[in-house]
């Protein structure tokens, strides 16, 4: 389907990767992985033809189509959701217009016996057959199914796209790409703006699709459910693993251990050779041996070891001025778009120094309320911002607002003032943009790198109210941890819009839940909020898992009825109104689930080892059946050793499986 041969990409004098060759076959499901900045997004751009390599070739068969969803996209604002999605069927619509025109011509003409008329009939017939093969009039129904699968309501179809958040508009773009049914789908972080239901729908869609798929994602579960092959960009080249991501992680660890052993052996050989040369360099009797060692040294090809990124990003928000005691107060705030109410009766008081979370499904108004607080859009009701409040805002599309023509250094140099201009290099180094990297253009940065650069800009001005809208999108796990610690140490107030449970854990002391046009307040951390909903994830809590599955206890039911008048209006809801239905405590449940996941991973790792040993035994069987190898003791010993190891691993697998059954 797509053939890549001897690919090389350089930025300036720095090679990103070289001598890369691989083939994407029909119905391949490929995870493209590598550390931040390794070139994953660049590889996708090259595969779809948006970027040219320094050298090498990318071959796509004539007639094959490629659909590409980038991390950063310029979106249209002048159409409705239905009209924008319908653009995916431009080919259908054009053919339908041709058919209508030919049909009109056949109706008006009377020269039924002429050759021209018969040619027109033949052309109409062929075009109509082609149109029906493409789905005919069914494309409208397919379009509606896809939009619904990605979370849109039918009432959304006629709404202007400008009324939707960036995340929802990216869903429209994803729908357009899926509806085109390209031969190859290239998806760069497709789950960043999807909720759990939409992710599950996308998994099923891709599983049933006839397209080949190449995707980049930080969502481990999504990668495992969709892909069956892993391409890793490492040390400037590509390693091809014909396995799912979880199996790749095991194999990569083994491969790196082998690399390290080979590297250490080679370094010892080099050291010994150099020592011999230095020792006997000036002895005439050893001149021949010395020259031999020098030639050996020159012929050695250095063994590369996969990079492990141990650099640490240090992030610290500057000291801020003291704001008023209550930076944000909402009193009956309401926002409507035409006849569509986003939320109403929002009553909220955020104290100075509080860290609070906004959670809710996409489109329920989290980003909209943020824009109200920022004064960017009109609303009804009263919204007070305290005196001395200085807002620092990190939007979902913050990375898209960067000037792609500027270098990393110039991007920061243009906004830095005073003494900070003397510390730009230190600041960039702290965010892993030090040295030559600071001269890279913004246009070639990955999504994670752009997000880090946008975060630097936020650091340049002292603020006392941080508003972060999905700040962890495009960030890897180490970067998320560093950002979390920086917010915890921040002197001021913070509002964090996020669905990332682990990121919010231990960070926020209050949760505001958006849903059904209301905003409910929950005192306590994110796990207090989850416990009140008898849920394990934010997505389960937002979807009312406890109610839908009727798992609340009879003891919890009376407590749920004892709402205050304010909570009945949707203004506040105190935690503790429902308890987990199981007898074990929440902490015990969490610990048990943690042990179960660990045991399941151990079983999977054991199965991978067993499969590997069984495959090797088959190879050895074949080799030993050859008369030439009958007396090869090395193969015989390896067979015995492998068989013994396999027996032990099978026993271990039995023990691990029993443990999983006990915990389950």
Automatic annotation (TrEMBL):
At the top level, the lineage of the source is Bacteria
Cite the Pfam families for this sequence. Answer: ABC_tran, ABC_tran_Xtn
List the InterPro entries: AAA+_ATPase, ABC_tran_Xtn, ABC_transporter-like_ATP-bd, ABC_transporter-like_CS, ABCF_ATPase, P-loop_NTPase
> Where would one find the signal peptide in this protein?
none
Species source reads Hallella mizrahii
* Name of the protein this chain belongs to: ABC-F family ATP-binding cassette domain-containing protein
* Ranges in coiled-coil conformation: none
Listed GO MF terms: ATP binding; ATP hydrolysis activity; DNA binding
ABC transporter domain sequence ranges: 2-260, 328-541
Q: Which parts of this chain are annotated as the region Disordered? A: 549-601
Which residues fall in a compositionally biased region of kind Low complexity? 553-568
| UniProt keyword annotations, A-Z | ATP-binding, Nucleotide-binding
Q: Please give the SMART domains that the UniProt record associates with this protein.
A: AAA
């Amino acid at each position: 389907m797509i053939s890549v041969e001897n690919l090389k990409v350089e930025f300036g004098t720095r090679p990103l990767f070289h001598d890369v060759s691989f083939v994407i076959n029909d119905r391949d499901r490929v995870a493209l992985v590598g550390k931040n900045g390794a070139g994953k997004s660049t590889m996708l751009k090259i595969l779809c033809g948006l970027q040219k390599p320094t050298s090498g070739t990318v071959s796509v068969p004539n007639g094959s189509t490629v659909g590409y969803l980038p991390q950063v996209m310029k979106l249209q604002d002048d159409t409705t959701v239905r009209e924008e999605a319908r653009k995916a069927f431009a080919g259908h619509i054009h053919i339908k217009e041709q058919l209508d025109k030919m049909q009109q011509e056949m109706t008006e003409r009377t020269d039924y016996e002429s050759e021209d008329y018969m040619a027109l009939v033949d052309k109409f017939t062929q075009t109509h057959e082609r149109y029906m093969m493409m789905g005919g009039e069914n494309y409208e129904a397919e379009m509606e199914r896809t939009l619904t699968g990605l979370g849109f309501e039918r009432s959304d179809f006629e709404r202007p796209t400008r009324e939707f958040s960036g995340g929802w508009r990216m869903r429209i773009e994803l729908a357009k790409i899926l509806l085109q049914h390209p031969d190859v789908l290239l998806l760069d972080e497709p789950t960043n703006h999807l909720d759990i239901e939409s992710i599950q729908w996308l998994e099923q869609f891709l599983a049933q699709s006839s397209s080949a798929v190449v995707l980049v994602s930080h969502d481990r579960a999504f990668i495992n459910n969709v892909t069956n092959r892993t391409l890793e960009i490492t040390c400037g080249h590509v390693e091809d693993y014909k396995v799912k991501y979880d199996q790749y992680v095991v194999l990569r660890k083994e491969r790196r251990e082998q690399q390290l052993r080979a590297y250490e052996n080679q370094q010892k050989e080099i050291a010994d050779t150099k020592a011999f040369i230095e020792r006997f360099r000036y002895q005439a009797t050893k001149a021949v041996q010395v020259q031999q060692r020098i030639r050996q040294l020159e012929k050695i090809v250095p063994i590369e070891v996969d990079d492990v990124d141990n650099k640490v990003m240090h992030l610290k928000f500057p000291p801020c001025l003291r704001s008023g005691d209550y930076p944000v107060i909402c009193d009956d705030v309401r926002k409507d778009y035409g006849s569509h109410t986003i939320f109403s009766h929002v009553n909220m008081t955020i104290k100075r120094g509080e860290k609070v979370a906004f959670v809710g499904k996409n489109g329920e108004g989290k980003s909209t309320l943020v824009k109200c607080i920022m004064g960017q859009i009109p609303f009804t009701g009263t919204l007070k911002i305290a005196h001395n409040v200085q807002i620092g805002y990190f939007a979902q599309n913050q990375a898209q607002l960067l000037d792609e023509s500027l270098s990393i250094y110039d991007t920061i140099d243009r906004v830095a003032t005073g003494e900070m201009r003397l510390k730009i290099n230190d600041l960039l180094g702290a965010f892993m943009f030090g040295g030559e990297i600071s001269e890279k253009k913004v246009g070639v940065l990955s999504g994670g790198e752009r997000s880090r650069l946008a975060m630097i800009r936020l650091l340049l001005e002292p603020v006392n109210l941080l508003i972060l809208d999905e700040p962890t999108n495009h960030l890897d796990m180490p970067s998320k941890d560093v950002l979390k610690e920086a917010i915890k140490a921040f002197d001021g107030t913070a509002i964090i819009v996020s669905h990332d449970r682990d990121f919010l854990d231990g960070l926020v002391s209050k949760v505001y839940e958006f849903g059904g046009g209301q905003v409910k307040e929950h005192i306590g951390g994110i796990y207090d909020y989850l416990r009140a909903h008898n849920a394990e994830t934010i997505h389960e809590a937002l979807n009312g898992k406890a109610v839908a599955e009727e798992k609340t206890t009879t003891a919890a039911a009376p407590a749920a009825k004892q709402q205050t008048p304010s909570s009945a209006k949707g203004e506040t809801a105190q935690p503790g109104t429902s308890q987990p239905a199981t007898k074990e405590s929440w902490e015990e449940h969490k610990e048990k689930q943690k042990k179960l996941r660990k045991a399941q991973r151990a079983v999977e790792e054991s199965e991978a080892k067993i499969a590997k040993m069984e495959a090797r035994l088959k190879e050895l069987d074949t080799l030993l059946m050859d008369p030439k190898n009958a007396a090869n003791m090395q193969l015989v010993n390896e067979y015995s050793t492998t068989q013994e190891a396999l027996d032990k691993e099978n026993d271990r697998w039995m023990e691990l499986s029993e443990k999983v059954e006990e915990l389950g």
